Amino acid sequence: MEQIKNQSFSLKSNDEWKEKADKSLKGKTTESLKTTTYENIVLKPLYTQQDQRTVPEFPGGSDFRRGISPLGYRTNEWKIAQRISYQTPEELQEKLLQSFDKGQSAISFEVKKELFDSRESLINILAESYRHFPFAINTKEFQSAFLAAASGLDQPNQFSGYIGSDPIALFSETGVISEEYFTKWGNNILQSSGKYPNLRTILIDTVPYHNGGANAVQELGIAMATGVNYLERLQETGMELEEILSEMVFQFSIGSNYFTEIAKLRAARVLWNRITGLYDMNDEVRGMVIAAETSSFTKTVHDPHVNLLRAGNEAFASVIGGVQYLHIEPFNSLTGCSPFSERIARNIQLLLKEEAHLKTVTDPAGGSWYVEELTNQLAEKAWEFFQQIEANGGMIEALKSNWLQQEIAAVYEKRNMDIQTRKQSIVGTNVYANLDETVPLRPLTKEKSSITDGEKIEAVINRRLAKPYEQLRKKAKELEENLGFKPTLGLICLGELKQYKARLDFMKGFLAAGGIQAVESKSIFSIDDARQFVSDQTSKHLCLCGTNEQYETIGHEILEAFRADFPERNIYLAGLPDKEKQARWLDEGIIQFIHMKSNCYETLLTILSKLEVNTIEETKA
């Protein structure tokens, strides 16, 4: 044991590591392990002390990347701000009271019009809770009505937390820019400033842009440009800069790229510190207060329990990144929350605090060469994007010209293409789809915005990565209802199991992503075996599965027989033959080669569309 304790290892250089890594990669190099993010940042496979840059020695100072509190969550825990869902004001009142007993530490819920049907409604809901807990509410267009109704409470000057609104984010969502609304909002902020000394009312909300597909650099640049817009605009109302800054809260949606999201939050504080420094503000108002929520952009309707893992990962990144308020989206929120899903979402935060002990560690990411380098790169690129927005006239003009919407849409198209080709996986949706699950078809409707008068612009579309595949599954479900059974595609398995199994499994997974049932044959050793299998199939879509050698020895003969006996059948081939052989297969009747690099979404859409046409024709006949 003493020898083990005293054993030491010689230091190895970066070049020695690369040499060893290159050998283990069997022909590839460490350069091939580099990846490029949607922010056009190249990630290296290894970060070393050579990547180290000077960073603050402790949180709560310098550029605030390490947090705004010297002791982090040890003295200032993040607030569990779960947005409570409800159907009636009475239900909200009951659930709000119950949530505080179960770990909720901030007053948070979606603001709906019916809350203001009577003056007493909101007062009854809040009761005495505001005396013990801070607010964490994005009021959207109801900020003025909310504050007016809440002013009837006893001693409203005790309000803390934030009751905020972001007009520019509202404009981007609704597709209308209303100067009249903007002016009223500014006056409301001015009036509220003195009335609620401990309450923040200015929200910079980047969630709509995140849900439109924006990358981290764009989210950060938009946040900075929106913040600057409000600094300039509210100064015109007579507010002092220190007063405006003390009213601000930044809201971010946290996506699935764990380290990028941690670095995004750190970079946000770096950037805002730089901007407020240019205004010559003191340190007390330069620290950024951040409210975060787990992303709805990454969530799925199918296999919703996987959303628990996604939300847990995103929540972990939020806390490591140093947020002050956090909402975790319940795993089934897309089809309607349940008491169970809301409880689990809240308990994830309690687990992070009490079991993972994240409230006791000050800046756990601090000093990581990877995270620090990623923080710096995000900050630098986001500063450039912020300058581009300003060069386009600022946030309002960038939206009016449609420049910003196009920038966000371009990133979304890259994300979408990676999902369609399965370069990026969505478990339970485009990979490992479960065709036997029952999905509640309860599309949730959002209240329409009351902001309708103003200059029309192109809205930032609210998207989700999984939605195209969910539409395929819906199309397959509708076909099943018309046919009386699931849409199918027959797989002609050539040779023994070990010969066709790899491509059989690939095709099953490929088809399941679109709700199509794979019907596999027994081992096919002859043309007669193949002919018998096809004769028993009702589906007009079939696919050859086997090795490249089998395709050449028996595949061409099978196709020739099919062309004579089953001319109406659509035949696909699993795999991609050599380029010089592809023309022959296509001439012999192969509709398409289905392989690892195929566009899964487009292929499945084509098959389902053909099945739909066939169903309509048969119905008419």
Description:
- The protein is an alpha/beta fold.
- It folds into two domains: 51-415, TIM Barrel (Alpha-Beta Barrel); 473-620, Rossmann fold (3-Layer(aba) Sandwich).
- The chain has 22 helices and 16 strands.
- The chain has helices at 2-6, 14-24, 89-101, 119-126, 143-150, 167-174, 179-195, 207-211, 216-235, 241-245, 258-278, 306-321, 339-355, 369-391, 395-400, 403-420, 467-483, 497-512, 527-535, 548-565, 579-587, 600-620; strands spanning 35-36, 42-43, 79-80, 135-138, 161-165, 176-177, 199-205, 248-254, 290-294, 325-327, 455-456, 488-493, 517-520, 541-545, 570-574, 590-594.
- A seven-stranded parallel beta sheet has the order 3-10-9-8-7-5-4. Strands 13-12-14-15-16 form a five-stranded parallel beta sheet, with helices on both faces.
- Strand 12 (488-493), helix 18 (497-512) and strand 13 (517-520) form a beta-alpha-beta unit.
- Helix 17 (467-483) runs parallel beside helix 22 (600-620).
- The longest helix is centred in the middle third of the chain and has 23 residues, at 369-391.
- The radius of gyration is 29 Å and the shape is globular.
- The termini are far apart.
Helix content percent band: 40-55%
Output the CATH class name of the largest domain. Answer: Alpha Beta
- Quick one: CATH superfamily of the largest domain? Methylmalonyl-CoA mutase
Secondary structure: number of strands: 16
Nearest-integer average pLDDT: 93
Distance between the termini: 84 Å
State the CATH architecture of the largest domain: Alpha-Beta Barrel
Examine the coordinates and then state which fold CATH places here, giving the name of the CATH topology of the largest domain.
TIM Barrel
Cα shape: globular
Supply the helix-strand structural class. Answer: alpha/beta
Strand residue percentage: 5-15%
The radius of gyration computed from the alpha-carbon positions, rounded to a whole number of angstroms, is: 29 Å
Q: Give the count of structural domains.
A: 2
Number of helices: 22
Uncertain ranges: none
Main sheet record: 7 strands, parallel
As laid out across the biggest beta sheet, the strand order is 3-10-9-8-7-5-4
